[in-house]
Amino acid sequence: MRFLSRRLVMPNDLNFAGSLFGGRILEWIDEEAYIFAACQLDSKSLVTKHIGAISFETSAFQGDVVEFGLGVKKVGRTSLTVTCVVRNKHTKQNICVADDIVFVHIEPDSRQPRPHNKTREQLDSLKLEAPE
Questions:
Q1: What string of DSSP letters covers 57-75?
Q2: Of 76, 110, 125, 127, which one is least surrounded by beta carbons within 10 A?
Q3: Are 52 and 33 in contact (CB under 8 A)?
Q4: What percentage of the chain carries pLDDT values higher than 70?
Q5: How many Å apart are CA 69 and CA 84, to the nearest integer?
Q6: Within-domain flag for 128
Q7: Residue 131 forms part of a structural domain
Q8: Number of structural domains, the chain?
Q9: Domain-located, residue 57
Q10: Using one digit for the tens of pLDDT, what is the confidence trace for 16-48?
Q11: How far is CA 37 from each of CA 21, 74, 79, rounded to the nearest angstrom?
């Protein structure tokens, strides 16, 4: 799993208890997973079909830097399934794990699924640049 991006937890990201709002982290996960899948498939014509199990493990607070680890779990004919781990950059504790995030490659005009023509082997051989 590669940790590819980071975000700073800001005051408007907090819930009433002063910790990172669950809805905000889910929004970030969907966006980060989409970017990852779009880069993997070299296509922006993707839609989120499904997000499976989500596990909140610890809290994040204002000023924390969170980082997003993403990896390919499964490659289908028209779909790509990824896993996302969000962790605290400083402590390395997992904040949230979202498993089985399924994206479907679609025809832009008809919005119907279409093959993405990528294999697991092709995706595994991609060299992604990650921040150090």
A1: -S--BTT-EEEEEEEEEEE
A2: 127
A3: no
A4: 95
A5: 5
A6: no
A7: no
A8: 1
A9: yes
A10: 999 999 999 999 999 999 999 999 999 999 999
A11: 24, 11, 10
- CATH number, domain of 13, equals 3.10.129.10
Q: What is the pTM of this model?
A: 0.90
Please check whether residue 61 is in contact with residue 18, taking contact to mean a CB–CB distance below 8 angstroms. Answer: yes
Dihedral sign, Cα of residue 48, residue 41, residue 87, residue 61? negative
Burial class (CB in 10 A: 0-12, 13-18, 19+), 95: buried
Give CA–CA dist 56/78, Å, rounded: 29
44-56 burial, b at 16+ Cβ within 10 Å, e below that, comes to eebeeeebeebee
The span from the CA of 89 to the CA of 91, in Å, is 6
pLDDT at 128: 53
